[in-house]
Amino acid sequence: MTGKADETLSYEQARDELVEVVRRLEAGGTTLEESLALWERGEELAKVCRRWLEGARARLDAALAEEESKGEDTE
After folding, report:
1. What is the pLDDT of residues 16-60, one digit of tens each?
2. Out of 9, 28, 57, 61, which residue is the most buried by the measure of CB atoms under 10 Å away?
């Protein structure tokens, strides 16, 4: 579950932190416990990014639908 602090992350902040988490996991050298904590954090960050992207998609769809309806009104 994402925390309150995660809700205030911008897409770019969440993405950058996720990139760092992946880098650390790929580098290895962490304990099993650390790796699990990193993986869990990565999952939370991926959810934050997904919410941002879904919101952006909804806004684009709404803007396109509005443009489409304006075009139909002028015909």
Report:
1. 999 999 999 999 999 999 999 999 999 999 999 999 999 999 999
2. 9
Residue 61's Cα: distance from chain center in Å? 18
Retrieve residue 13's tokens.
């902040």
Tell me which amino acid residue 7 is: E
Cα separation, 10 vs 28, whole angstroms: 28
This prediction's pTM: 0.79
The pLDDT score that the predictor gives to residue 74 is: 65
Contact, 45 vs 18, CB < 8 A? yes
* Integer Cα distance of 52 and 30 in angstroms: 30
Both tokens of 48, joined, read: 């934050």
Rounded-to-integer distance, Cα 37 and Cα 47, Å: 16
